[in-house]
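Example 3.2
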Amino acid sequence: MNPQLRTALELAAAGVPVLPLRAGKLPFGNCPTCAANACGGRPNMKTAGPCRCPDICHGWAAATTDTDSLTSPTWAPAWQQAQAIAYHPAGARLTVLDLDDAEAVTWARQTLPATRTVPTTRGEHWIYLGAMPSANAVRPGVDIKSSMAYARWLGPGTGTMTALPDAVRALAVKEPSTIRPAPHVVTAPAGVGEEHCRHRTPAYLDRGIAMAEQRITQTRSAVHTTVYRTFLAVLSAHGRCGCLTDTHVARLFAAAQAKGESPRHCTDAWTNARTKLGL
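Structure, written as tokens:
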């Protein structure tokens, strides 16, 4: 039996969902059955759910503890080509703190409770008991891999696993930005024939801003595009009469930053929307 598959079966028997990785530590591509979202899952690996297809697809969501799937003929070619094994930490109720360099390891040793550690090429994986949302670049050289993510299996490691500490959970919580956006407040005159701007009616403008905030907050994919299109819609409705204030635009920027957009991305999207409309 392929040694990678043998290890995978041992992990699966211990309740750890696994999948094979090809060269470059990458999952195998979506299978033909699931192409174009035919199976109802989502090829976007960050939002995919576990796929019912027996083939290897959808990245982390292909991880399984089902030995029949792991040893099925449809998975055999992947195991023959596999260069490594990955596992879905949250599927085993685990969180992996991926420390990518010596400085990150030093920070963890000085800051976090000790737990099981696994050496990596450049640093260490610290494995805690408990699942949480995954997050990249939570600090220099540090990624969190848990839900909707996979980590490479590099061996059992050493030390006793401890409960996921609040200090690690806090790393994934985005703090409110201290950088205030510098929006361009449009001061174009009202349209011909208008004695006053109808947008100054509090209910009209507030409803528009609230709807824009909701659109950004509820998006689950394509955040950049959603933010830009929302800014474009707001400026189309309110950008030529001078009714938008710094407070309104700050609300939109705050909603976008809560979804992971940087202040620079917000400013760029706002500027691009204004340019598009000729404002």
